[in-house]
Design brief:
Elements: H1 2-19, E1 22-40, E2 44-50, E3 57-67, E4 70-79, E5 97-104, E6 107-115, H2 117-125, E7 149-157, E8 164-171, E9 184-193, E10 196-209, E11 212-227, E12 232-243, E13 249-264, E14 267-278, E15 286-296, E16 301-312, E17 326-337
Antiparallel strand pairs: 1-2, 1-3, 1-17, 3-4, 4-5, 5-6, 6-7, 7-8, 8-9, 9-10, 10-11, 11-12, 12-13, 13-14, 14-15, 15-16, 16-17
Length: 338
């Protein structure tokens, strides 16, 4: 009996040691709010919306120590509509993220569906965290984010060095006979030192229609934030251009953002002004005002509310999709993270 107990004890210790080398975390967000959308000219729509502050999700992520300073990691994250139970991202099983990677002193290499570096840069410097306002898209209601994620992506991230970090990502187009058609790539660099954060990013996306090359779109971004403790200041500038398959310019614009955020106990207040300046089409500019606030009930649960509006010039269709039409959003909701 004692020998049996000893054997089980040894096996238990070995199993514990093995499992200690790897870990898997289950996590998620459930975010639902009451939202009113107003078009002018046009009507109002009131609805329950999922994922206004943060996209509702269920995820799994893990890491395994391979020894010698190497580790393997993965992340599978599905989006969901908490108001209906439907899958997000067009019904994809793990539409938010789906990748496996290898990490070490060289940095990390990840393969699969991932965020574009440009979106990460926007999220870093947007006072509203690319959420809460503008139908849950924050600064991305005006600034380009190229679908937020790329399929078939190879992403390399550098280790942090003296406050500097960077990443480069390439999304394969996987079109027969062409390595460029439908492909896209992006890069971003970040510096964080004391109260200052600076980001720079670039994205190039090849456009396709029926498998044919129809041109490309590109964006270059620079932005930053400075924390004064009582308040935090935010700013960004992006230049955008579009070309057809023959190389002729079909679009040219600039986007600007100035913002501020301030914590007041359990309350956080955020505001920004975003400007879209169309450099090619007359009277197609837009102004975007955002104001939001959150109230923390705990470390995992908070209320939020916001009001935002996009005012378009006569030929502008930012946000509304209809030239000369303004759009505004008003919401109040609750978010829980687990």
């Amino acid at each position: 009996m004692n020998k049996s107990l000893l054997a089980f004890a040894v096996l238990g210790a070995l199993a514990t040691g093995a499992f200690a080398q790897s870990s898997v975390t289950v996590y998620g967000v459930v975010d639902v709010g009451l939202e009113q959308t107003r078009l002018s000219p046009g009507g109002n729509t009131t609805r329950l919306s999922s994922g206004i502050q943060s996209g509702s999700r269920l995820g799994f992520k893990g890491n395994e120590d391979l020894g010698g300073g190497l580790s393997a990691s993965f992340q599978l994250e599905m989006g969901l509509d908490a108001t209906t139970g439907a899958a997000g991202q067009g019904g994809l099983a793990f539409g938010r993220q789906s990748w496996v990677g290898l990490n070490g002193g060289f940095g990390s290499l990840k393969l699969g569906r991932q965020y574009v570096p440009l979106f990460g840069a926007l999220d870093t410097i947007d006072p509203l965290g690319t959420g809460i306002t503008g139908d849950g898209s924050g600064i991305s209601a005006v600034f380009r984010s190229f679908g937020v994620r790329m399929n078939n992506t190879i992403n390399y991230s550098t280790p942090a060095m003296g406050g500097f970090s960077g990443e480069v990502a390439y999304g394969l187009g996987e079109v027969s006979g062409s390595t460029s058609t439908g492909s896209q790539w992006g890069a971003a660099g970040t510096y964080e030192g004391g109260p200052l954060t600076v980001v720079a990013a670039y994205h190039l996306q090849g456009q396709t229609a029926g498998g044919a090359d129809t041109g490309d779109s590109r964006t270059a971004l620079v932005g930053g934030a400075y924390d004064l403790k009582a308040v935090k200041l935010h700013a960004a500038l992006a230049t955008n251009s579009d070309k057809d398959a023959a190389g002729a310019t079909t679009g040219k614009s600039r986007d600007y953002m100035l913002g501020i955020s301030a914590p007041v106990g359990p309350v956080s207040v955020m505001a920004s002004y975003v400007r879209h300046d169309d450099r090619l089409v007359p009277n197609a500019d837009a102004a975007y005002w955002q104001l939001g606030a959150t109230y923390a009930l705990s470390k995992r649960t908070n209320f939020y509310t916001s009001y935002s509006t996009i005012r378009n010039d006569s030929a502008g269709a930012t946000g509304s999709g209809v030239p000369g039409t303004d759009i505004s959003w008003l919401n109040v909701g609750i978010r829980h993270k687990f």
